[in-house]
Amino acid sequence: MPSTDNTTAPAAVIKNTRIQYAQERYFVDQPTAPGTYLGPIDASLPNADKVPLLFQPFTIKDLTIANRVVVAPMCMFSSTDGFFTDFHLVHLGSFAASGAGLVIAEATGVQPNGRISPSDTGLWKDEHIPGLKRIADFVHAQGSKIGIQLAHAGRKASVKGYYADLPESEFWKDNVVGPSGGAEFQWDEKHNVPRELSIEEIQETVKAFGAAAVRAAKAGLDTVEIHGAHGYLIHNFLSPISNQRTDQYGGSLENRARFLLEVVREVRANFPAEKPIFLRVSATDHVEHLGEASWEIEQTIQIAKWVKEAGVDVFHVSAGGNTAKQVVKYAPGYQVPFAERVKNEVPGLTVVAVGVITEGKQANDILENEKADLVAVGRAFLREPSVTLKFARELNVKAKYSQQYERGRL
Asked: Domain NADH:flavin oxidoreductase/NADH oxidase N-terminal spans what residues (predicted)?
């Protein structure tokens, strides 16, 4: 954004600066949020008067979304030094303009060495705030809501992203960390050997999550999601596969969950109380075939109870990612049963289901059958950024289009 300090600038410069600023801040009013239910497409169809749950609004604390479609965080590897770019504005903004109720930005490093790759976004310094705020302002202008996933990649950090061809100097292979260190804790040969975090470093990391939450609030975000899944640092602490410490952060489930709970409390203390906090977890390590001690659904249910008491409002249930030994049987909705277990056994906790959810009826059935409260969609949005409107058509729902796209309605 251009500077607003023009006290000594010529009048013509001041005028041109104001015009440029107005152009950058120009939004078309959206009287009704895209993705809002307007009625049935065909009122003659059976049950046409019943509003599918997927297109009913949902409220958590002061966050109200127009429908129950959540854009899951997806790494884009399109950043330099953590800064959000024009790509992120277009990428995330397109989902909001096409009707998604809530857009969650990708896994964003709370520390430089917490990034998956040098091309990840970050929130470890105040200079990152303006770029994120620009995106949040655009999403809000469309009538949608936005959050961000706060992350530390742990032992899976400092790897090459999908697109960036970066020099070796951009990586930090000697500063990849985990709860336990050494070659036996290397994820696979493509990843780096982690070193063990000290107690002091653990506490610094906890504080970094809180500081990132402050920056997210300053950027105007509606929620933050703590990343505790997919083999990244919090998951590393939770699972006995990757955590073999003998101090207060290892051993028993209570000890292995200590880092997570400290992060949750720190984020909660540093993010507005009226705004919800999400937590994404992996419900299982997917190594049941080995018969080894690992992270499984029963432990996930226990920590769901603990984090609810600590301040988590929404529990986003994924699976896997913590070991190369995993065996995952991919299928439509393959992770939904884990979300259903948590929803059934932890009353009062809002639950998000994710995992190959690609059809409107499939997504709505998850909600109607009370397997989850919200559904998150990832790769389907990459194939079709307007997948929310696709779901609407499949469910005989006339959903609001953005003002600029209304002429494209079928």
From this structure: 54-396
Gyration radius of the chain's alpha carbons: 22
**Number of neighbours of residue 138 by Cβ within 10 angstroms:** 19
Rounded CA separation 183/172 (Å): 16
* Spatial distance between the Cα atoms of 217 and 337, rounded to a whole number of angstroms: 33
Catalytic residues: 232
Q: Could you tell me if residue 14 is inside a domain?
A: no
Half-sphere exposure of 151 (CA within 13 A, CB side): 32
pLDDT (tens digit, 9 = 90+) per residue, 126-182? 999 999 999 999 999 999 999 999 999 999 999 988 776 888 999 999 999 999 999
Q: Residue 404 corresponds to which amino acid?
A: Q
**For residue 63, which of 146, 133, 5, 162 has the smallest C-alpha distance?**
146
When divided into structural domains, the chain yields a total of 1
User: Is residue 324 in a domain?
Assistant: yes
Cβ neighbors of 184 (< 8 A, separation 6 or more) are none
Nearest alpha carbon to residue 358 among 390, 323, 310: 390
